[in-house]
Amino acid sequence: MKNIVIIPAAGNGLRLGEQIPKQYLKVFGKEIIAYTIDIFQNCGLIDEIIISAQTEYFDQIRQIKDNYGFTKISKVVKGGETRQKSVANALFSITAEDSDLILIHDAARPLLPKLILKNAIEKAKIHQSAIVAIKAKDTLLIGNSIAEKYIPRENVFYVQTPQIFSFKILKESFIFCENTNFIATDDSSLVKNAGFDIHLVEGSEFNFKITTATDLEIFKKIVNSNN
Fold first, then answer.
1. 38-50: per-residue pLDDT in tens?
2. pLDDT band at residue 20, thresholds of 50, 70 and 90?
3. What's the mean pLDDT in 121-132?
């Protein structure tokens, strides 16, 4: 059984207000996506890494691969207009057995703890699916300028990545959703829509996605404190 990582990296990251996509921003001289790739390069459970990206960044990704010795990157494929299409392009470029595990992880989620990655892979081996998520701690409400409705938080989770599925389940789910024109916000909702169960693994608040300028500052402080 192989464990293959897909990193969709075709997004623009416009909310940070930078001139380049956030995954290529350098923090202490190293690209954010390089921090992310490091996690999987240095994990003995991972066999292969595939990146989907905008074609104009192919050369930069190849340079990152060479600069940091990322030997597990097997290919870079063209990203799509949406995350869903980017993952699909990578998925259907893979030659894999039905039981092989496909891990999908955000390019700008560079602090995934090793233990959580290991736990997610182990659960996926058993159930053919596993997603990392953390339980909601804050009070939740629906509203606009005023609070309209409060939501019980006991069974509410914030979904993170990696999201892991057997090659067979993920491939069948993408085909089903393409045939039914279903657009998902993430891969787990796509798989759930295709009729498969989703199993949860406890995540970490360190495993946040860099989306805003505040997120970027927090990431810089964490990296700096570890140096």
1. 999 999 999 999 9
2. confident
3. 98
CA distance 128 to 217: 36
Asked whether the beta carbons of 13 and 108 are under 8 A apart, the reply is: yes
Which residues form the domain of 190? 3-226
pTM for this model (two decimals): 0.95
Q: 96-99: long-range contacts at Cβ-Cβ below 8 A with a sequence spacing of 24 or more?
A: 96/2, 96/4, 96/167, 97/1, 97/2, 97/167, 98/166, 98/167, 98/168, 99/1, 99/166, 99/167, 99/168
**Residue type at 193?**
N
How many whole angstroms separate alpha carbon 202 and alpha carbon 182? Answer: 28
Residue 182 sits in a domain whose CATH number is: 3.90.550.10
Number of independent structural domains in the chain:
1
Assigned token pair, 54: 């905008």
Mean pLDDT value across residues 195-222:
96
Residue 201 pLDDT greater than 80, yes or no: yes
